Amino acid sequence: MTTTAAIEVKGLEKSFKDLHVLRGVDFDVERGSIFALLGSNGAGKTTVVRILSTLMKADAGVATITGFDVAGKAQKVRETISLTGQFAAVDEVLSGRENLVLIAQLRHLPDPGAIADGLLARFSLTDAGARKVATYSGGMRRRLDIAMSLIGNPPVIFLDEPTTGLDPAARIEVWEAVKELARGGTTVLLTTQYLEEAEQLADRIAILHKGRIIVNGTLGDLKALLPPAKVEYVEKQPSLEDVFFALTGETDTAEPGAAESGAPPTRKEGR
Fold first, then answer.
1. CA distance 247 to 190
2. Which residue in 78, 177, 168 sits closest to 123, CA to CA?
3. Which of 15, 98, 127, 240, by CA, is between 20 and 30 Å from 263?
4. Is residue 10 within 8 Å of residue 61, measured between CB atoms?
5. In sequence order, which residues have a C-beta less than 8 Å from that of residue 163 and are 6 or more positions away?
6. Which residue from 181, 182, 174, 183 is spatially nearest to 192, judged by alpha carbons?
7. Residue 195 has what pLDDT?
8. What's the Cα-to-Cα distance from 174 to each of 6, 47, 129, rounded to whole Å?
9. Which of 107, 182, 96, 105 is nearest to 147 (CA)?
10. Are 148 and 104 in contact (CB under 8 A)?
11. How distant is the alpha carbon of residue 18 from its chain centre?
12. What is the pLDDT of residue 244?
């Protein structure tokens, strides 16, 4: 494995009978970075995550997590990673703090209460910590879910489409939580079908299409693949997002983009 790579994937292949889902996938993820695996539904993103998290075996290829072979050292890999799926895995009957304490106890960690309080503070959930999760918004549940996945301080976390089904404000809350992970030194592999999500979060972006990585680079690298847009000066009408944030009083720090449909966001260069 390369000295700076937390994840290294070479020649990954996976088929389900006659359906070839992965056709030789290659990529590296540097330690402490956010790597976005971008693709439409059915591109193979979740299959990659399942293989890397030892939930599924590849037909061919090699993958390592912090130096441990995913196939040969599965238990070591499980001790190194955490996985957050497309839907928040939280207990709605318990409070946010009780969810965190429970996971810390199951991991046999000392002082579960202190761990829970620290994570509540880290993800801006302290005021809601004593409330039942059933009363939480979608964004709060997802932030709690991510906080739960950090118990035990795994160096690598997989986020499989973490903002699916969330409204624009909740999506931004999750974006800030993901950025906080990277600031804390956690390596994040993020799968998404939302173009702007990858643009907002990722240090590097790989586009997975029909089972292959067709491009892999920084946002600047990817934008350089196309010629500059022609500049036209036209009157810009307010978007629905502008109206939403104006009416709700939220700060439009980042545009939610494709919203729940997953459709590519409207390109705004040169307007």
1. 31
2. 177
3. 15
4. yes
5. 142, 170, 171, 174, 175, 192, 194, 197
6. 174
7. 84
8. 23, 23, 17
9. 96
10. no
11. 29
12. 67
Which residues of the chain are modeled with pLDDT < 50?
1-2, 253-271
Say what the pLDDT of residue 247 is: 65
Q: Domain limits of the chain?
A: 5-261
* 254 torsion bin: left (phi>0), alpha (psi -120 to 50), beta (else): beta
pTM of the model: 0.78
The second-level CATH assignment, the architecture, of 5-261 is 3-Layer(aba) Sandwich (3.40)
Count of C-beta atoms within a 10 Å radius of residue 270: 11
Count CA atoms within 13 Å of residue 24 on its CB side: 1
Q: Among all chains, which residue has been given the structure tokens 């993103």?
A: 45
The reported pLDDT for the residue numbered 50 is 94
Q: 10 Å Cβ neighbour count for 87? A: 14
173-229 tens-digit pLDDT:
888 888 988 888 999 999 988 888 888 999 999 999 889 999 999 988 888 887 876
Other CB atoms within 10 Å distance of the CB of residue 226: 7
pLDDT of residue 261: 41
Distance of CA 137 to the CA centre of its chain: 19
Contact 190, 142 (CB under 8 A): no
Alpha helix positions (H), 187-239: 195-201, 219-223
Query: What number of CA atoms fall less than 13 Å from residue 242's CA on the CB side?
Result: 4
- Chain centroid offset of residue 257 CA: 16
Tokens 């790579």 sit at which residue? 5
Using DSSP's 3-state secondary structure scheme, residue 213 falls into: strand
